[in-house]
């Protein structure tokens, strides 16, 4: 690499398309605007695919913006290197313990936190956590954070800021909680140091970034004349709201490039998780069951777009406090446009993945608050029931569904063996709290029966 590239100051765990199309671009722009050594070291926690593809172009990549009326491409150079954790976990720890590194960000998806989604606490029986308790070379994201912080403490260094960029409610508090829970089991003094010196700002991240498909790679080669094995495809919109609480205040000048640096992320995060992601998951299950391949296809169907508009208006917005400067009706209208963007081929099947980890923050919190306030919520109940039909593993034409979820096998057997699948699934405590199971029994069972009798499309249309 030429010497004029910035030194590494930031490590990212879980280097997927989302971070490369969102956080990495903001960091690159912040360096252009205000300087600083914020080159990024990417870490893949599982497989070498991204590293191998990116290495061919010295870790530069194309970011393609897919607008409703056409595309534009940019070449992004901010990632300096990519490590594959299972190949050499020590090299990852050494990089994280480097004094020049000040921020470690994560996109490891909901399940990567090894926590119980219903409670937000570390699951000490998770196989990777059990491994990480007994071995100094970790496998899990919490394990890497704790062991690297331990090295920094032992060397007399300051901790790095831990920046969760996953779609979890209070993601800063969740990652802090799992790190502290694990550190306590390893070394209480370490846990006490992290508790007082560590910083875990909460963030709200937003940009629709469908998985890169083989035809996208071919498209980029034709459009740019450059063979790039790892381009990212994204919509024009982007938003990043960050709680401004970094270790010793050290961070790139993100505020200069449109990142909202705020004191309290919670209202932004509720708005985004419940309105964007809640609607996405509802459209994913109802859309898949209705035979729609992508979100844009589902939005082109008046039954589903009418359903989702009514879901926002009557069931989600009434339960939200608008964040400063945001108008929720306008936000919903903008979401409808973003979802309808025909340039974005975001598969319902992709969003349907890992529902057991996503449902609590996307749909269940709103449903419980509405029921407690006496607001009937047939659309939220239908979204939950559609998830139940989906994890049953058979579509409305009797064809198998390839369900991807850490709990897939258990959900399937509970559903198969039950007289009432909704009742059996409501008892899964990783997803539903006992109070929710009680409160949801009637509306979710009614919605489920409707799905069995009438199918997803008709059920949605009746609520459009
Ligand atoms: C989607 C999100 O895959 C999913 O579950 O709902 O990835 C969504 O596209 C992003 O959160 C948008 O910011």
Automatic annotation (TrEMBL):
<dbReference type="InterPro" id="IPR008927">
    <property type="entry name" value="6-PGluconate_DH-like_C_sf"/>
</dbReference>
<dbReference type="InterPro" id="IPR050988">
    <property type="entry name" value="Mannitol_DH/Oxidoreductase"/>
</dbReference>
<dbReference type="InterPro" id="IPR000669">
    <property type="entry name" value="Mannitol_DH"/>
</dbReference>
<feature type="domain" description="Mannitol dehydrogenase N-terminal">
    <location>
        <begin position="11"/>
        <end position="248"/>
    </location>
</feature>
<dbReference type="InterPro" id="IPR013118">
    <property type="entry name" value="Mannitol_DH_C"/>
</dbReference>
<keyword id="KW-0560">Oxidoreductase</keyword>
<feature type="domain" description="Mannitol dehydrogenase C-terminal">
    <location>
        <begin position="264"/>
        <end position="449"/>
    </location>
</feature>
<dbReference type="InterPro" id="IPR013328">
    <property type="entry name" value="6PGD_dom2"/>
</dbReference>
<dbReference type="GO" id="GO:0016491">
    <property type="term" value="F:oxidoreductase activity"/>
</dbReference>
<dbReference type="InterPro" id="IPR013131">
    <property type="entry name" value="Mannitol_DH_N"/>
</dbReference>
<dbReference type="InterPro" id="IPR036291">
    <property type="entry name" value="NAD(P)-bd_dom_sf"/>
</dbReference>
<protein>
    <submittedName>
        <fullName>Mannitol dehydrogenase family protein</fullName>
        <ecNumber>1.1.1.-</ecNumber>
    </submittedName>
</protein>
<dbReference type="Pfam" id="PF08125">
    <property type="entry name" value="Mannitol_dh_C"/>
</dbReference>
<dbReference type="Pfam" id="PF01232">
    <property type="entry name" value="Mannitol_dh"/>
</dbReference>
